[in-house]
User: What shape does this take?
Amino acid sequence: MRYAVLGAGGLGGLVGGALARAGHSVTLVVRDPAHPATLLVESAVLGNFEVAVAVTTVLKEPVDVLWATTKATQLEGALASAPAALVEGTVVPLLNGIDHVERLREVYRAVTPGTIRVESERVAPGLIRQPGPFIAVDLAGPLATEIAAELSAAGIQARVREDETSMLWQKLLVLAPMALTTTATQRSIGGVRDDPQWRERLLGVLEEAGEVARAEGAVLDVEASRAAILSMPDGMRSSMQKDRAAGRPLELDAIAGPILRGGREHDLPTPHTQVLCSLLAE
Assistant: This one.
C-alpha cells in the first residue's frame, strides 16, 4: 500500500522507515522542507538501516494510509498538511490518549485507531533511535488486517483488535502511570518502582485509570497492565519525561485528561492522578 506519515518523529520515522525498507511507498509530511530524504534507523528490534523516502510539507498525491504520529499537542495544527481528499483508505493514529480519535473522524472519512508500545526517539532530523526490546502495534477498524500484515512483514509485531475502546484504554493503563511518575520525578521507571512512595503513586494511577476505563465500557486486563509496568526495563523513560527535560510542551491533557474527566463524569475518585497533574502543571 501507499503510505504517508504525518509527523516524522520517533514513532513516525520508525514505522515509516520499516515500511519503506520493506518496499512500500512512504511519504513523510513534515514542517521542515529541508528534512532529509533518507531515514537512518538504529533499532534494537529491526537492526540498523538507511532507507530513502519522499518528503513534503503538504501531501499532494493520493495515499492508501495516513499514519498520524504527531504529538497530541501538535495534531490540530498539522491536519491541514494532509488533506482528507487524498487519503483514499484510512487514517491510523498512533497518538497518546483517547480523544484524538473523535477529532480525526470529524476530518477524515475513515479512521483506524492504533496503539504502539515502543521506546523510540528522533535524535536528529532523519535519525531515529529505538533502544528497547519491543515494537508492538495494535489496530482496530478499516484495513486493520491488511495494514497489520504489512507491518508484520516489515518486522513490527502487529495484531488486530475488535474493540477500539478497550484497546485505547489498555494502553493508557500502562502509559499514564509511567508517563506521569517518570516525568514528575525525572527518573527512569526503575527509579520510580524502587521508591516506595512513588511506587504507590505509580500503581495508584493504574487503579484509577482502570476504574474509569471500566466505567467507559472498556474490557480490561488490569493485572496484565500491572505486570507490564513492573517488568519494564529499569532504564526505560517516557516520551513525556523526555519532552519535559527538553522544555517541550507536555501531552498532559491527552494522557491524564481522560482519567480526570472520566472520574468526574462517573463520580470516581482520582487522587493520585490529580496530585501528579498538579505537580506537572507547576
About this structure: The domain at 2-160 is CATH 3.40.50.720 (Rossmann fold). The chain has two domains: 2-160, 164-281. The radius of gyration is 18 Å.
